[in-house]
Amino acid sequence: MPESVKDLLRLTAEETYAPELTALAGKDTRPRPENWKLSPQAVVTYLMGGEAPDGTPISAKYVGNRRLIETAVATLATDRALLLLGLPGTAKSWVSEHLAAAISGSSRRIIQCTAGTDENQIRYGWNYALLLAKGPSHDALVRTPLTRAMEEGSIVRLEELTRMGSDVQDTLITVLSEKTLPIPELDSAIEARRGFNVIATANNRDKGVNDLSSALKRRFNVVVLPSPATLEEEVSIVLKRVHEIGSNLSLPPIPPADQEMVRIVTLFRELREGKTLNGKTKLKTSTGSLSTAEAISAGVGAWASAAHFGDGVLDAPSLAPNLVGAVVKDPVQDTIALEEYLESVVRTRDGWSDLYTAIREVL
Amino acid sequence: MAALAEQRLYLFGIRHHGPGSAALLRQALDAVTPDCVLIEGPPEGDPLIPYVAEAGMKPPVAMLLHASDDASSATFMPFAEFSPEWQAMHWALERQAPVRFIDWPASVSLALSQHADVSADAELNGDEVPQSRTDALDLLAEGAGYDDGEAFWNNLIEQHGGGGQHALAIFASIETAMTEARAHEQGLLREETDHLRDLRREAFMRIQIRAALKEYAGSIAVVAGAWHLGALRNLGKATDDRALIKELPRIKVDATWVPWTDSRLSARSGYGAGVISPGWYRHLWSLYSRPQLASVEEFASLWQARTALTLRKDGHNVPTASAIEAARLTLGLSAIRGLPIPGLAEMREASLATLCHGNPVPLALIEQKLYIGESVGEIDERVPQMPLARDLLLWQRKTRLKPEDVEQELRLDLRSEAGLLKSTLLHRLNLLNVQWGKVLDAQAGRGTFREVWMLRWVPELSVALAEALIYGVTIEQAASNATLTKARSTTSILTLANLVHASLIADLPSAATTCIEQLQAAAVSASDVTDLMRAVAPLVRVLRYGSARILPEDALRALIKSLSIEVNAGVRIGSRGLDEETSSARLEAVDGYDEALRLFGEKSLLISWEIELGHMVNDDHSVPAIAGLSLRKLHDHCVWPLGAVSSAFARYTGDREPAHAGDFLAGFLRGGSEIILHDEPLLHLMDLWLCNLGEEEFIDSLPLLRRSLTGIDAVFRRRLLDKLKRGQEQSGRADLTEELGTNLAFDAALPLLYKILGIGGPV
User: Fold this and answer.
1) Left (φ > 0), alpha (ψ -120 to 50) or beta: where does B255 sit?
2) Are B337 and A70 an interchain contact pair (Cβ–Cβ within 8 Å)?
3) Do B8 and B19 contact (CB within 8 A), yes or no?
4) pTM of the predicted model, to two decimals?
5) Residue A175: its pLDDT value, please?
6) Looking at the complex, does the CB of residue B364 fall below 8 Å from at least one CB of chain A?
7) What residue in A sits closest to B321 (Cα-Cα)?
């Protein structure tokens, strides 16, 4: 890795896992679609973990149902656009980034869709200086990630597809079905090369988003990424990611705090599902989504405060403010939910009394 | 000789209901062209085999074997068109080759199970073959790394590209594998009875195989569950086998074909050798049974097209373009997973991602239709059937009712001939305990000429039909006799009354007449007035409204009269000292009886009844609730003047314990508390009583008040309160206002009142 990128805050997937990708590509003899860096099977291995043909261990990027990832890769291999749907924090963007990294070798072609995104950011814009000086020409086009991906035959990622207006979304229809983007001004078109494809993500919880038109919807294959099925699965995801992010941020090392992570995840799951893990007590749910992703950032936050301000051990006092911050998104309703949870669950649970005291202090 | 026999003997180990093994079996049979085909199954079924080729036979069907004298001791052997055994029979019949069953006779297995006192239910659910354990070949598939037995076979067929020699090679290796597996299993502990059962069955099979080898010079094909192969190859000594099956009990057995259902084939219904997805297997078979093996593309497209169609029928918008994409994704998925042919899992996941946009709900809704199927088999007319089954078939044709495997609502108009006929059939079947339909609502829309039924045919109904055979050979005759038998064996008023009612609506006049006589006789000696009362109500209804059917009106009228006389004579004494349960049943009965008597319109009976009501009110030993209800009836029908009512009311509420007063009030307000809203004098009575209570008494009676008012809904309580309040404001009752002071006091009491009335305060 070049010296200059070392101080980057976050490395892309293909940079972080470059050795794994190289190892997988090395002896990958299975047929691969044109312009794919890996065969579909190798892409699945890259996502789910395993071993490269030469014996290099491959870490798991996605912890969950392998069949979902297989469906996603098969979708892309059959030239269909992929829509990853799920609650916030169910690793949609994460999966999309790694899929792009494994398939095209780059996850950088990305469009962040917002309510302010207009057609020019999806199709192409004009360099007005050139346009005025020389008239319409290919040179005067300002390319977007989408058009670049079409030209080079790579994956383009559309983040939060449903956040942009429906009319703008529909720009994609021709691109997805005919793999071409007409430029009527020049009486020509940008033709997609093989290997071009779209991975979009959208969450199915938020209100006020723009639903896909049925014309666009049926051009996507939809894979729904579920919340982690079990406590163990979610804990392992949180542990892994907290460790990775923490190391990347060069947080001062602290003793492993697996037990504290279990507590974070337990609390998140219980408040998210509105009942205790054993299903016996019914609880109020919080307004926030309390996703795995938020559990991870609460974990990292707790690590940071333990390392910088605490006594170097991740314990209840360093955990409490981060937990409260994550749970209480609505100062009224969420405080009630948390209060109820504190009194009915945390106070009486064995070995949680320190957490009870710590959270009480913060509240 | 032995070596020769070995060469002539072909053992084909199959997976029950496996389309893959059915396809391979046909190839293998074509390659061998055996002189005789032997199939694992009870020999009593042999005479049934020729009917398999009849045009009218539509699987799923099952061979029903039952003890001649006791149809409840029965066993089924079901076949789908993709069952290897079914195909083997077809193959043999097409070539006019002899084909027979070689398993142990049902006469033995049924006799044994009767001995073992196995309940009929358990026997019905299990197959006669003990396949409650996983299919042996599924274990083999599992060993080969497949989670679905059929996927394994798919691969076998696909990889070997068909052809008889390949099929033979596959069956040979199955035999080797299963013999080996069996050799290992012998060492394991197994249920002793299971083991003995297997040994005996295999002895029977070997005896039959030996006989066939002697009889025919050519090759012999044996189609059996893979598990038995190891025991069938080595024929051993005939004397040993005879010793094994010596002195087994036997009973006489009847066999016939009966319709079976898709859902019963599927594993979900608990049928041991059941398959997971009849719908999917049928799809596989439709492709295997073609002359040319279908391409993978065709394979995926046909299934996805069917999924799309089913979704569309269910009201989902699924364009053809999406079905194409689903097929493409299916192929992509199976490529990634290294499967030569996509399995059901790939199909399902692709449907989910493309046809349903990731939403599992629509797919779950069509699962039953798509994966299980809803068809009910059909039996050819030429199949000799039990007389009742034949009669039912005639009825089904006459009434145009087709048995189906889904719950289905049927609305009948009894004024039309067709509707009446259907209703009669269904009622008669119910009398025979063949519950094809359930009455949901006998008077849909309050008209007595309508009936709503929920229909669903399940295979067990064939057994119930066979059981009913002891009563007669036509449905009418059997239903009539079954009713009579039941009527003669009981003296319970209620049962008899129900039988009268049932035989009337099932159009069985002669049975009805006998039941009526029985009931009349029983009524005289009956001790329970409640039952008598309950018996009257439905009979009156039939008499009054049942004009859709022809009734023995005079007999019925006489019956009701005599029942009513019994009731009127016994009700007063019978209303003393009842416990809570019987008195609440009695209350209901009094209500129904009162209504029925008024409908019946016989003046003298009504008058004597009203006198009895009066007695019950005046009788201090009457149960308070019944006294309350009686008083209410007297009041409602203006039998007693208001003065008499109010004094009786005062008597019951005034000087009794609060609990008694409460029961009385509850009885009084039963089935229509609205009355106190509309009946000013009555409200006044209650009001007066309440106001006259001392403080302590008032507090004591609070719970009972609350209890008496629990039967009243919230809207009504609020209206009641409003009315009382309005009464206050309008000063309609000046004395009371005086007593309570001003409205201020009333307002102060309001929260308590709300509580008593069980409603929230005004919001």
Assistant:
1) beta
2) yes
3) no
4) 0.67
5) 92
6) no
7) A218
A37-82 pLDDT, tens digit per residue, is 999 999 999 999 998 888 889 988 898 888 899 999 999 998 899 9
Q: Does B691 touch chain A (CB under 8 A)?
A: no
Contact A222 B357 (CB under 8 A): yes
pLDDT digits (tens, 9 = 90+) for B406-419: 788 888 887 788 88
Residue B127 has pLDDT above 50, yes or no: no
State chain B's mean pLDDT as an integer. 77
Pairing of strands A110-112, A124-126: unpaired
Q: Give the Cα separation of B560 and B574 in Å (integer).
A: 19
B678-to-A112, B210, B643, B645, B683 alpha-carbon distances in Å: 69, 91, 18, 16, 8
Best of A32, A80, A216, A221 to disrupt the B interface (most B CBs within 10 Å) is A221
- By C-alpha distance, which of B66, B79, B49, B78 is closest to B110? B66
Task: Provide the shortest C-alpha distance from residue A65 to chain B (in Å).
Answer: 12
Closest-CA distance, B146 to chain A, in angstroms, reads 15
pLDDT over threshold 70, residue B723: yes
Per-residue model confidence (pLDDT) at position B4: 57
If DSSP codes are grouped into helix, strand and coil, which group holds residue B553? helix
CA dihedral of residues B657, B660, B665, B671 (deg, nearest 10): 170
B63-93 exposure pattern, b = at least 16 Cβ within 10 A, e = fewer: bbbbbeeebebbbbbbbbbbbbbbbbbbbbb
Give me the mean pLDDT over the B634-648 stretch. Answer: 80
DSSP symbol at B687: H
Instruction: Please name which of A220, A210, A219, A282 lies closest in space to residue A83, comparing C-alpha atoms.
Output: A220
Question: With an 8 Å Cβ cutoff, are B336 and A67 in contact?
Answer: no
Q: What is the pLDDT of residues B349-408, one digit of tens each?
A: 999 999 988 888 888 888 878 887 777 788 887 777 777 787 888 888 888 888 887 788
- Looking at residue A260, its amino acid is E
Contact A71 B349 (CB under 8 A): yes
Q: What letters, b where the CB count within 10 A reaches 16 and e where it falls short, cover B473-493?
A: ebbbbbbbbbbbebbeeeebb
Q: How far apart are CA B580 and CA B592, in angstroms?
A: 19
- Torsion over CA: A207, A210, A213, A216 (sign): negative
Give the DSSP H/E element, type plus range, for residue A103.
helix A92-104
Strand, helix or coil at B657?
coil
Contact B455, B436 (CB under 8 A): yes
Q: What is the largest CA-CA distance in chain A?
A: 76
Angstroms from B329 CA to nearest CA on chain A: 6
Q: Check residues B528 and A176 and name the one with the higher pLDDT.
A: A176
Query: What ipTM does this complex have?
Result: 0.82
Helix (H) or strand (E) holding B577: none
Give A100's pLDDT tier (boundaries 50, 70, 90): very high
Cα separation of A72 and B329, whole Å?
A: 9
